[in-house]
Amino acid sequence: MILRALACSLLALLPALLPALLLAAGASARTVTDSAGRPVALPERVTRVYAAGPPASILVYIVAPETLTGWPRALHPHERPYIAEAYRDLPETGRLTGRGNTVNLETLLKSEPDLILDFGSLRDTYVSLADAVQEQTGIPYLLIDGRFENTPAALRLVGEILGVEARGEALAAYVEALFAEIDAGLAGLPDDARPRTYLARGPAGLETGLKGSINTEIIERAGGLNVADPGDASVRRGIVNTSIEQVIAADPDTILTWDRTFYDKVRTDPLWAGIDAVRRGRVYLSPTAPFGWIDRPPSVNRIIGLRWLSGLLFPERFAFDLDAETRRFYRLFYHVELSDTELDGLIDWARGDP
What we know:
- The protein is an alpha/beta fold and 354 residues long.
- It has 2 domains: 2-177, Nitrogenase molybdenum iron protein domain (Rossmann fold); 188-347, Rossmann fold (3-Layer(aba) Sandwich).
- It has 13 helices and 11 strands.
């Protein structure tokens, strides 16, 4: 349905945009092969990037914020202090991909991007959409693998595409150093020594991500075991609804959430009272500003979450100063210097404070 609507909207706008599209096509000076294996012709210099969804907007903002044409949704008030002031009021551009796509094609085209970029899944649905949009607009459309392990490569590729290779390299090096530290710290750790972890999404805590999903892969990367494991390799890994009976049966010893409503009530909810994590006080609330530390969306924002979660699950193996690491990450990745008040508002509960 979205492709049909896309085609109708573009046909109506095409006459007015044809000169600009032809100019863009003529300016193509290089070819980049994206993560889906699609060769895409790009202009020599890319200065305006339309992010197809929230994960892509975060990636572009982190690498080269001056190229971002807008946010898929306007920033909420509590998110604004954690974004550099010059980019807090970028227009809301809608989204081409993911849940609740709300793209306004006229807005997309009138923003005159040199490039459309998506960061996440490489499933056929996304490849087909990218091909259709690129063919009908003449605007190059790149798909970049959003899996956690691909983060350094994604940062380097986008840095190269946007002409900020040194920045892309610095960001990638930070991520690689963190990955290496965690790999070394977890080397040889048997499964029975890994926390059995459940990600509780939503106010009821009964939405989660299956093991291997892009939404929960941070759990395994930090050394935990995701108890939402279907045990069947053929099952599509993603977000699912579960039941309290299933959570009780899984009996996780650690629960993660970013939903304050769930966090505030779970410790006194009789339905959850018998679960090991609740009995032991091992329910943790993840920071969410300007983007989630665990997911929401699954983009480069998860890197600071990986640092936090590794220390949360294995404090004896990963000793670090959370305040200092958070300041460092926000300075390097989000282009902001955190005040003491902003830092406290962000991670009071992540430190373990109620």
